[in-house]
Automatic annotation (TrEMBL):
<dbReference type="Pfam" id="PF00521">
    <property type="entry name" value="DNA_topoisoIV"/>
</dbReference>
<dbReference type="GO" id="GO:0005524">
    <property type="term" value="F:ATP binding"/>
</dbReference>
<dbReference type="GO" id="GO:0003918">
    <property type="term" value="F:DNA topoisomerase type II (double strand cut, ATP-hydrolyzing) activity"/>
</dbReference>
<dbReference type="GO" id="GO:0005737">
    <property type="term" value="C:cytoplasm"/>
</dbReference>
<feature type="compositionally biased region" description="Acidic residues">
    <location>
        <begin position="841"/>
        <end position="858"/>
    </location>
</feature>
<dbReference type="GO" id="GO:0006265">
    <property type="term" value="P:DNA topological change"/>
</dbReference>
<keyword id="KW-0175">Coiled coil</keyword>
<dbReference type="GO" id="GO:0009330">
    <property type="term" value="C:DNA topoisomerase type II (double strand cut, ATP-hydrolyzing) complex"/>
</dbReference>
<dbReference type="InterPro" id="IPR050220">
    <property type="entry name" value="Type_II_DNA_Topoisomerases"/>
</dbReference>
<keyword id="KW-0799">Topoisomerase</keyword>
<feature type="region of interest" description="Disordered">
    <location>
        <begin position="840"/>
        <end position="883"/>
    </location>
</feature>
<keyword id="KW-0238">DNA-binding</keyword>
<dbReference type="InterPro" id="IPR013757">
    <property type="entry name" value="Topo_IIA_A_a_sf"/>
</dbReference>
<protein>
    <submittedName>
        <fullName>DNA gyrase/topoisomerase IV subunit A</fullName>
    </submittedName>
</protein>
<comment type="similarity">
    <text>Belongs to the type II topoisomerase GyrA/ParC subunit family.</text>
</comment>
<feature type="active site" description="O-(5'-phospho-DNA)-tyrosine intermediate">
    <location>
        <position position="130"/>
    </location>
</feature>
<feature type="domain" description="Topo IIA-type catalytic">
    <location>
        <begin position="49"/>
        <end position="497"/>
    </location>
</feature>
């Protein structure tokens, strides 16, 4: 056999050394494929994605386990905890410290001390050697239980670490989680602590539930497209912006995922690009967010708020993606299913905990009973004559036999060995009554645990209820849930450039500064242009764009604008008849040329006007004196022409050649008053019949707004208007209708009554005293309001009967700044508003039954000077252009 083996001897080695080395070929493709899959699996399972069982990533789980190892009730240096964690986590200290800071900033599992950074400003935490931490009381309560924890060897085999921690709470949904792995990512948004507990209880009760995100940075969120946190969902989050005064906005809450620094940077960038216009910005953030945005005078705060949402990080969108690890595999699951699984897992952990307690109590009861039998029956004397260990065991076993029939399990050798370890001192002081009391107490505890096991769901509900009671204080919802309306960027963008036109050559653009100025515009606007040959085109603002020679009208184009009406008279072909038409342009294809005539060659526009409020003027038509034509002049009222589509042919003006057309009379609007609704869900006005009808509005009509702070103002109804949460009255303003108010004066500590009318429609005025203790009790816009005073009971006297007050008779109408009349000298318990006295208000003049345009754009309710210029290329009256 030795001859058959290839053995290496010294001679063989010398021969091998003299030979040339053989080449080895390793295919990189196969190696790369194997290594890449190993790496991808490791990143997914061991680094980026949390486990569904406990909601932890491995590094987080190891940090919590290390903190439990070191826990003695006192704070530990984070650097010390990080170093201890490195025994379990095979990565650098920086990644462990960063992960620990993230857990600490969520203020749930870790009790922190020192500078742990600021999620609002983005400031980093101090170095790990300067900050301290310990497990919070809540963390000790719901995360750890070594008896029901499954263990595995650490990466170097020296220690044991938990496979999963026995977390008895939907921790992953409370904290949220985010990670990017190889070809895979997860983004689970944080949810409200109290709402998660309530949802868990509903699940245990068999009821349906819904959970929505709640962010630590607060803000406002629109979760209508949340999609249960699955792929494809989207959450829109906004900063909370309010108006401090007419020239100052204040941001008090920021969107999740941003910081005050990044938000301010985005505002400054939008200002530099000309999207918004601000004077300066201040960051006063400390424990609470406070960013002051100072506006130039004359700039609309409402439009600026919308512009901030449209062009800055004041509004962002988050795309959730529910991905977790289950049984070492990625699982895509919604937050509802995550909560169900977490709650069911909590029930099973509670069951295991109860079963372990039951076993421990039964074991204690078993030995206490054995001990009592052993001592009470003096069985220990039976071993005095025994000389061997086996003899001792046999003697005790024999002595126990008559007394162990009531025990719940057989007596083992280990039980007898424990009996031999009882000290003589304990035997001599043994008290039968105390022993029986201990056994009785253990029986009560066993019965209680068995009851909990038999009613496990009720026990779990009680567990969640206790968590809510002990730890729910101060964890109320921070993020306000609201439905948003998309901000139309074209309506709120600042006009940051100027538009020019070369009518003869047919060019429009922002670089034609030597040509005719049209209007101010923004770089995202669309421009509509009409030419003398009856063509129309809409094009995006650019430095120079050709739209066609002979331009007769240029303006900024408003999408879906059904209120701007174009009046046109054109000649059909070189020798054809003339037609008249009215139309609106609501939707177009950009850069497409539209023919507004009948399409014949040499057609020409004879008369054209653009009317932002649907005006219809009267024109005079003059014919050429040709042949036997008798009537050479007559008037046409555009109000008699129906508004149709832009492709309509129009009505015949004359078959004979037209000499000229002149404007005879300026037009008035042919549109009915606009019906305006208020949608409380999005807190916006609209003309889409959503919400409550506010009223019908003509051009100069306004809305009355009264707030809880005692501020009254009137505003022009526009869809961009923002309304405060403390708004009490929002209705169509009737100038001669009085406002009645009862308020408490904090300085004089008395109730006052006043009635007034709004005298200055353009001013916001406070009609109660500005003392910090003053408050508005009742406000009414009824013509004859009634109130009732409920008096406090004075000691030793009967309570005074309630007193009705007719506010119209109580006080006459005075100025808005007047203090008013004292309501009563008696002490007031409450004031109630009563049903008003019937009164027939003056009727409004009804609108004429004219052609109605269903409009969508309310921003032209009051034409400004800039808009007038934009809609008029030749005449100052904004009405007509003659050719």
């Amino acid at each position: 056999m030795a001859e058959d083996n290839d053995e290496l001897t010294n001679d063989n080695l010398e021969d091998l050394n003299t030979q040339e080395p053989q080449e080895t070929i390793t295919r990189i493709t196969g190696m790369y494929k194997e290594w890449f899959l190993d790496y991808a699996s490791y990143v997914i399972l061991e680094r980026a994605v949390p486990a569904i069982e406990d909601g932890f990533k491995p590094v987080q789980r190891r940090i919590m386990h290390s903190m439990k190892d070191l826990d003695d009730g006192r704070y530990n240096k984070v650097a010390n905890i990080v170093g201890h964690t490195m025994q379990y986590h095979p990565h650098g200290d920086a990644s462990i410290a960063d992960a620990m800071v993230q857990i600490g900033q969520k203020d749930l599992l870790i009790d922190t001390q020192g500078n742990w950074g600021n999620i609002l400003t983005g400031d980093r935490a101090a170095a790990a050697r300067y900050i301290e931490a310990r497990i919070s009381k809540f963390g000790m309560d719901v995360v750890f239980n070594p008896k029901i924890t499954q263990w595995q060897s650490s990466y170097d085999g020296r220690r044991k670490e938990p496979i999963n921690l026995p977390v008895m709470f939907p921790l992953l949904l409370a904290q949220g989680g985010e990670g990017i792995a190889v070809g895979l990512s997860t983004k689970i948004l944080p949810h409200n602590f109290i709402e998660l507990i309530d949802a868990s209880v509903k699940h245990l009760q068999g009821k349906r539930f819904t959970i929505l995100p709640d962010f630590p940075t607060a803000g406002i969120a629109d979760c209508s497209d949340y999609n249960d946190g699955l792929r494809g969902g989207k959450v829109h989050v906004r900063a909370k912006i309010s108006q401090l005064d007419k020239n100052t906005l204040v941001i008090s809450e920021i969107p999740f995922g941003t910081t005050t620094s990044s938000l301010i940077d985005s505002v400054l960038k939008a200002n530099d690009k000309g999207k918004i216009k601000i004077k300066k910005i201040e960051d006063n953030t400390a424990a609470e967010v406070e960013i002051l945005i100072h506006l130039p005078s004359g700039l609309s705060p409402d439009k600026t708020i919308d512009a901030l949402y449209a062009f800055t990080n004041c509004e962002t969108s988050i795309s959730p993606l529910g991905c977790v690890i289950e049984n070492n595999k990625p699982l895509f699951v919604g937050v509802t299913e995550m909560l169900r699984r977490s709650t069911d897992n909590t029930v099973q952990l509670l069951k295991q905990e109860l079963e372990i307690k039951l076993g421990e109590f039964e074991e204690q009861w078993h030995f206490a009973s054995l001990e009592r039998i052993f001592i009470e029956n003096r069985i220990y004397r039976d071993i005095e004559e025994e000389e061997t260990w086996d003899g001792v065991i046999s003697a005790i076993e024999k002595g126990l036999q008559p007394h162990i029939k009531h025990l719940k399990r057989a007596v083992t050798v280990d039980d007898i060995a424990r009996l031999t370890e009882i000290r003589i001192k304990r035997i001599s002081k043994f008290d039968i009554d105390k022993a029986q009391q201990k056994i009785d107490a253990l029986e009560e505890q066993i019965a209680e645990v068995k009851h909990h096991l038999a009613h496990l769901i009720e026990y779990a509900i009680a567990f969640f209820t206790r968590l809510k009671k002990e730890y729910g204080a101060g964890r109320e919802r921070k993020t306000e849930l609201r439905t948003f309306e998309d901000v139309d960027a074209t309506k709120v963008v600042i006009r940051n450039t100027k538009l020019y036109v070369n009518k003869e050559e047919g060019f429009i653009g922002t670089s034609l500064k030597r040509d005719e100025y049209v209007c101010d515009c923004s770089d995202i606007d669309d421009i509509i242009a009409f030419t003398a040959d009856g063509k129309m085109m809409v094009s995006k603002v650019d430095s120079k764009t050709f739209v066609g020679k002979g331009i007769i009208y240029v303006a900024v184009f408003k999408k879906k604008d059904k209120r701007t009406i174009y009046n046109l008279v054109y000649k059909d072909g070189s020798k054809g008849p003339s037609y008249i038409k009215r139309f609106a342009v609501t939707s177009i294809t950009r850069d497409k040329e539209y023919d507004l005539t009948n399409g014949n060659k040499s057609s020409k526009a004879l008369y054209f006007t653009a009317n932002p409020n649907g005006e219809a003027e009267v024109i005079t038509v003059f014919l050429r004196q040709v042949g036997s034509v008798k009537k050479l002049k007559w008037d046409i009222d555009f109000a008699d022409i129906l508004i149709k589509g832009r492709a309509s042919k129009g009505n015949l003006v004359s078959k004979h050649p037209v000499k000229k057309i002149e404007l005879k009379e300026k037009g008035v609007s042919t549109l009915k008053p606009r019906k305006i609704w208020y949608d409380d869900t999005v807190q916006r006005l609209n003309v889409d019949e959503r919400g409550e009808l506010v009223g019908e509005f003509r051009g100069e009509d306004r809305i009355l707004v009264i707030t809880q702070k005692g501020i009254a103002k009137t505003i022009i109804p526009e869809v961009t208007t923002h309304f405060d949460n403390d708004m009490l009255v929002m209705e169509k303003w009737v100038p001669k209708k009085p406002i009645s108010a009862i308020y408490f004066d904090g300085e004089k500590e008395m109730y006052y009554v006043k009635r007034f009318i709004i005298e200055n429609e353009n001013r916001e005025e406070q009609f109660i005293s500005n003392h910090p203790n003053s408050f508005l009790e009742i406000v009414s816009t009824d013509w004859k309001p009634m109130a009732e005073i409920e008096f406090k009971k004075e000691r030793g006297k009967d309570r005074k009967e309630n007193e009705p007050i007719n506010l119209e008779e109580f006080i006459s109408i005075k100025g808005i700044a007047a203090q008013g009349n004292q309501l009563t000298k008696d002490r007031v318990n409450a004031i109630h508003i009563m049903e008003s006295i019937p009164y027939e208000a003056p009727e409004e003049i009804p609108a004429e039954d004219l052609e109605v345009i269903e409009e969508e754009d309310m921003s032209v309710s009051k034409t400004t000077d800039d808009e007038t210029k934009a809609s008029n290329s030749e005449d100052d009256n904004g009405q007509s252009t003659l050719f």
